Amino acid sequence: MSENIKFVGKNKDSKFLESIIEQKNEGYKKDFSSSFHPSTITECPRRLVYRTKEYTTGNKNEYLDKMDVTFRIMKWIEFFRKMKSIQVLSSDFIAADCHYNISGKIDAILKINGNNYVTKIYPINSLNYAKIGQNGAFKKHVIEIMIYMWITETTGGILLYENKDNNEYLIFNVDLYIPIINSVKKKCLNLIDCKIDNRLPNCPYKDKKSAECLICEFNKKCI
Ligand code: SF4
Questions:
Q1: Residue 120 lies in a domain
Q2: Is 113:156 a contact under the CB 8 Å cutoff?
Q3: Which range of residues forms the domain containing residue 211?
Q4: Residue 107 Cα, ligand 1 centroid: separation in angstroms?
């Protein structure tokens, strides 16, 4: 190792590369989202409104993490494209409803045995993979995919979880349940009212020691 040290260093270009990666991550942290994302719709309403005012994250490399997820999703879609018994009807597209100010991205719509399925692919770590293996799909993902099913008027959903540590996978199908969509619509309309009136939704917790508050990026500023 020490013999190689004379060949290793930082020149103008390697520093430039470092700085543009840094800038990209910084820029990503400042991204602004004015609509509600289906993947976070189960979270505290106040947190959702904070998110639409400013997007912050404590993760320096969030942009690179997202790219890793993107490439894993692309891998699965390419895999499905090569299977004769499955048709990829579309992939990687935005699904939005302006009345409820909600928008997000669908990984693919697959045709399997003549039935259409909105498909979401989640690369996750071993800990979460074990939880899902024991208890089934995460509720927030079930609700997220139902929102996409409602927006695209598709009655079937597929959730695919890939363990990022060993490439094992779990697949679940989801049926649309309209009462859940109705409660999502109600929540979105309430959030829109809050934004129009420039006020925060009521705090849903007794104190800031609730599980969601403890991991919330707005914990310090939330009053
Ligand atoms: S600190 Fe708690 S109440 Fe405030 S936005 Fe975050 S989760 Fe909601």
A1: yes
A2: no
A3: 28-215
A4: 29
Please give the chain's pLDDT, 223 residues, in tens.
455 677 777 888 888 878 877 777 666 655 567 888 899 999 999 989 888 876 655 566 777 888 889 999 999 999 999 999 999 999 999 999 999 999 999 999 999 999 999 999 999 999 999 999 999 999 999 999 999 999 999 989 999 999 999 989 999 999 999 999 999 999 999 999 998 998 999 888 888 889 999 988 888 888 7
What phi and psi, each to the nearest 5 degrees, are found at residue 155? -90, -15
Find the 9 Cα to ligand 1 centroid distance in Å: 45
Q: How close is the Cα of 46 to the center of ligand 1, in Å?
A: 6
Predicted structure pTM score? 0.85
Q: Is 213 in the pocket of ligand 1 (CB under 6 A)?
A: yes
User: Taking a C-beta distance cutoff of 8 angstroms, is the pair 77, 71 a contact?
Assistant: no
Whether 13 maps to a domain, the answer reads: no
- CATH code at position 94: 3.90.320.10
Q: Examine residue 14 and state whether it is found in any structural domain, yes or no.
A: no
d(C-alpha 223, C-alpha 221), whole Å? 6
Is there a contact between 121 and 72 (Cβ–Cβ < 8 Å)? yes
Q: How far apart are CA 122 and CA 223, in angstroms?
A: 33
How many folded domains does the chain comprise?
1
In a domain, 222, yes or no: no
Half-sphere exposure for 18 (CA within 13 Å, toward CB) = 7
